[in-house]
Every structure is written in structure tokens, then in C-alpha cells.
Specification:
The protein has helices at about 10-20, 60-75, 110-115, 160-165, 175-180, 235-240, 245-260, 305-325; strands at about 5, 25-30, 40-45, 45-50, 75-80, 85, 95, 100-105, 120, 125-135, 135-140, 145-150, 150-155, 180-190, 200-205, 210-215, 225-230, 270-280, 290, 295. It has about 325 residues and is of the alpha/beta class. The chain has two domains: about 1-30 and about 125-180 and about 280-325, FAD/NAD(P)-binding domain; about 40-110 and about 180-280, Polyamine Oxidase, Chain A, domain 2 (Alpha-Beta Complex). The chain has a seven-stranded mixed β-sheet. It has a six-stranded mixed β-sheet with strand order 9-2-1-13-20-19, covered by helices on one side. A hairpin with a 2-residue loop joins β10 (about 125-135) and β11. The longest helix is centred in the last third of the chain and has 19 residues, at about 305-325. The chain is globular. The model has no long low-confidence stretch (mean pLDDT about 95).
Length: about 325
């Protein structure tokens, strides 16, 4: 069987791994301590924070079919928060979603953890260089570990990272140039007083804050009350390299102003920077395979900044590769 290396163990990478696991020897490489990418959960003391992706929708039939077993076992559940639209200078309005929104249970990374079962995943392993040798592709880490050889290498990291890692000979570099990505900051708070607002999730406009969630309201979360605050993409991109301590102060001041409440005495307070959080301009295709170099790239950035897009990009790439592996 052919050996395939997949770089990145988020939704796209795990999807490729699952689809190809019966057709090749598949190995995934993930730089973080856990699988999941932006479907992440932060742990601190007794608190949990879904500090990346907040939820997702299911529109495509292939995605719906793939998720059906996870819905049946309860790993995936519909989320029905009390939702409001908050805008500076206006009275807050109740808002209803027009389609179902889902979250993994009991934490956001649970779906990816379940997907990774039965797949060979190397965690805490950041691939910084790949090189083609006579025997195939070799992968190298920062501490000079070597993996390989592999017949194929599939990169599922964000476009700017993939562009640096894949060689100039890769035929898909045009898509890296076309794609534009946004950053985002997530403020995480463990509340020191009972929640007193009627909403459980809020879309925010006319503010550097774009989204707020009472994270502990999601299905099967702990009873410890936690709040997630995420910033506007345009604002974030304009402040992406500022010191996080300064950013945290700015976001907290804006939150205090929006809700007319001082959150400074929260029991836990921290900020995470997502350098590549959302898609400003997608690549415009579903994925790219370079059959001559035996390299591939996929991810949500090819299509749209959604979990479903990450799945579809990986799913379609894998189905195309199956024809070559059979």
C-alpha cells in the first residue's frame, strides 16, 4: 500500500485521513497537543472554553451523511441558545436562526477526537520542511526528526502556512496567492457573579466585538459559568501583531461598555490570538492535487470559512485520490 502523509489534524486533515485509511498507509502530523484545529477547547482549572469555532451548520448531503453516526451517539447535538442582536446605540433585539446549528458534546473538540480514532496521528509534531528524495517525500521537524518516505503529501494547514511549506514546484501556488485570510481574538472569562442577561449568544454590530457566547450554556458543558468574546475580523487584522496584554485590555473595556458591567474581577481571564481565523477571499476551487509532484492541498480556505467547507474540501480531494490508489 502507498504511504500518505497528511499535515494538519483539523476537520480537513481528519476527513482526508478517514477517507483514505482503507486505501493507503496514512499518517497525520499535528503541531498541537490535540487534534481539532480551530474546533478547539481550552482548559484552565475547572473551566472549559470553546475558544475557536463556536458552532456550525449542515447543508451538504455528504456532510449530513458523514455526521449521522455522531449525531446518533450524541457526540454532535443541536444548539438552541437565546440569541440576540446587540448594536451600539440601539435596543437589543431577539434574533432567530433560520437553520439548525450544531456543537460537539461535551466540548467542541470532541467530534475531531472521535474522528481521529483508528488513524495514526503524530501530535506535538510540527513539520517545517518537506523534501523530495529518490525514495519519496521526507518530512522534517524543528528538532530534526525525519519521517518518511511517502508517495504523497497532503497539506491541510491555512493558506499562508501551506505556501511556506510546499515547494515552489507545487502547481497550486496560484491558490495561495488568491486566498486572503483574517485573524481573530478570543477573550475568555470565568464569571465571578451569576449571569444576569437574558441572552445566551449575541451577534454584535458596530463594535470591535462581533460575537459573545455564554459558553457554559452549550449542551453538556460544565456548570462553571464561562463567557466567550470574539472580535471583528477587520479590526483583528488591523491589530494582529499588537501585544496580547494590550489587546485584552481593549476588548475588556469594550465588553464592559457594551454590557454596562465591569468584568475585570472575573475568576479567570485570558486572550487567544487566531492568526488565521476566517476567509476574506477563498481560493475559488474545492482543493488542488499536483499529480506530477504527488502533492495536495485542501482546507476551508479553498471554499469558504465554514466547518462544512473544510470537510467538503478534504472529502473531495480524498475521493479524487482514491481513483489513483485503487
Amino acid at each position: 500500500m502507498k504511504r500518505i502523509a497528511i499535515i494538519g489534524a483539523g476537520m480537513a486533515g481528519l476527513t482526508v485521513g478517514i477517507q483514505l485509511n482503507d486505501f493507503a498507509i496514512v499518517e497525520l502530523f499535528e503541531k498541537s497537543r490535540r487534534v481539532s484545529g480551530r474546533m478547539s477547547t481550552r482548559y484552565a482549572n475547572n473551566y472549559q472554553f470553546d475558544h475557536g469555532t463556536q458552532d456550525f451548520t449542515v447543508r451538504d448531503q455528504a456532510f449530513k451523511k458523514f455526521l449521522a453516526p455522531y449525531m446518533k451517539t450524541g457526540i454532535l447535538k443541536e444548539w438552541k441558545p437565546k440569541l440576540m442582536l446587540i448594536e451600539k446605540g440601539y435596543v437589543a433585539k431577539t434574533k432567530n436562526w433560520t437553520e439548525k446549528h450544531y456543537v460537539p458534546s461535551p466540548k467542541m473538540n470532541e467530534l475531531c477526537v472521535a474522528m481521529a480514532k483508528g488513524i495514526n496521528v503524530q501530535l506535538n509534531t510540527e513539520i517545517i520542511r518537506i523534501e523530495k528524495k529518490e525514495q519519496g517525500w521526507l518530512l522534517y521537524t524543528k528538532d530534526k526528526q525525519e519521517f518518511g518516505p511517502y508517495e504523497w503529501v497532503i497539506n491541510t494547514t491555512p493558506a499562508p502556512q501551506a505556501e511556506k511549506l510546499l515547494p515552489d514546484s507545487f502547481s497550486g501556488h496560484q491558490y495561495f496567492k488568491k486566498c486572503k485570510m483574517f485573524g481573530c481574538y478570543t477573550l475568555m472569562l470565568a464569571l465571578s457573579a451569576p449571569w444576569k442577561w437574558e441572552w445566551e449568544a449575541a451577534i454584535v454590530r458596530n463594535s470591535l466585538i462581533s460575537w459573545m457566547t455564554l459558553n457554559s450554556n452549550k449542551p453538556d458543558r460544565s456548570n462553571e459559568q464561562t463567557l466567550i468574546v470574539q472580535t471583528d475580523n477587520e479590526w483583528s487584522e488591523n491589530h494582529i501583531d499588537e501585544a496580547k496584554s494590550n489587546i485584552q485590555h481593549i476588548i475588556l473595556e469594550e465588553l464592559n461598555s457594551l454590557l454596562s458591567y465591569d468584568f475585570s474581577d472575573s475568576q479567570y481571564l485570558t486572550t487567544h490570538r487566531w492568526r488565521y481565523s476566517d476567509i476574506k477571499q477563498a481560493a475559488g476551487v474545492d482543493y488542488h492535487l499536483d499529480h506530477e509532484q504527488q502533492l495536495g492541498a485542501c482546507g476551508d480556505w479553498f471554499i469558504k470559512g465554514r466547518i462544512e467547507a473544510a470537510f467538503l474540501s478534504g472529502y473531495k480531494l480524498a475521493n479524487s485520490m482514491k481513483k489513483k490508489l485503487c
